Amino acid sequence: MWYLVDADDPTRVIRYLPEVGLARERSLHRAIRPSSLAALANTVIRTVVESGGRHRSRIAVRGETYTVAAIPVAGPGDRPLAVQVWVAATDAPHEPPPSVDAFLWDSRQWTLMSSGAGGAVLPKGYPMLHGAWFLGRIIECEDRDKLITVALDAEPGAGWDGPMRVLSADDTHTTRVFGYFRCRSRQQLSGLLLQTERGRDPGIVLPTYRNDAAAALRPMAATNGKGPDQMNSGPAARYGNRHTSIRSGTGDRPGGPVGSRSWWCSRAD
Questions:
Q1: Omega before 34 within 30 of 0, i.e. cis
Q2: 149 has pLDDT over 50
Q3: Hey, how many other C-beta atoms are within 10 angstroms of the C-beta on 104?
Q4: What is the pLDDT of residues 132-146, one digit of tens each?
Q5: Taking the CA atoms of the chain, what radius of gyration do you get in angstroms?
Q6: In sequence order, which ranges of 64-157 are alpha helices (DSSP H)?
C-alpha cells in the first residue's frame, strides 16, 4: 500500500485507498502496524528526506518478509517536500505510485513554486505559476472559503486538507485529488495534491464559477503583497538554468480554455 508523507511532519501519513478512490490522513504508527514495521518506515522516510534519493529496506515480521520502499517528491530546487512510501509483504504485487504534485505557495508574491516536473495538475516545465491560475483550476472542494483564506494570508498553524476536483494539467478532463496544505512559515504554505482518480477519458469541461472566482482574487492578491502588475516588473526567477517570468495574456499557455484571460508563468528561452 502507498502512503504519502509531508517532509515537515513524518509522524503522519496520507493513506491512499485506490479501491474507493479516497485518501485519509492519520498517524504513521496507527496506519502501519506492527510497531517494528512502522519504526522501519519512519527510518526510511527520514533517510529519503535527508538524502533526496530513493531508499528500500526489508524486515521480517512474524515469519513474513516486508518491504518498505520510499520515493522523494521534489519541490523547488529539487528539495524533497514529501515522500511516497510503499509498505507491503515482499511477495505482494507492487502497484505503481499515484501521481503527486508538490509545491510552495507564497502569499506575499502570490506565486506557486514547484520543481517544474509536472504532474496530474501542474504543467511540466513551469516551475512558477500565478496563484490565481492555480485557484482557477479548482472545480470543487470542501470548505473553499477556508482554503482561499489560508492562501491569502498564511499564518503559523493554518492549514487545509480535503478532496478536490480540478482541471488536469493537459486541460482535457477533470480529475480528483486529495489536497493537503500546511503553513511552513509566515506567508508560505506547502501544498501536496495526491491524485485519487485514474483512467478518466478526455471530455468536455463545463464552465463553472471558477474563472470568475480566480478573476476576483487577482485584485485581492494585489493588496496582499505583490500584485500581478508589480510582479511583471520584477526580475525573472531563476530555477537551475531556466528563467521564468510572470505575464498575462490569452490563448497558448498552460491551463484554461483558449481565448480566456488568465495569469500564468511563461518560460524564457
A1: yes
A2: yes
A3: 19
A4: 899 889 989 988 889
A5: 19
A6: 131-135, 144-152
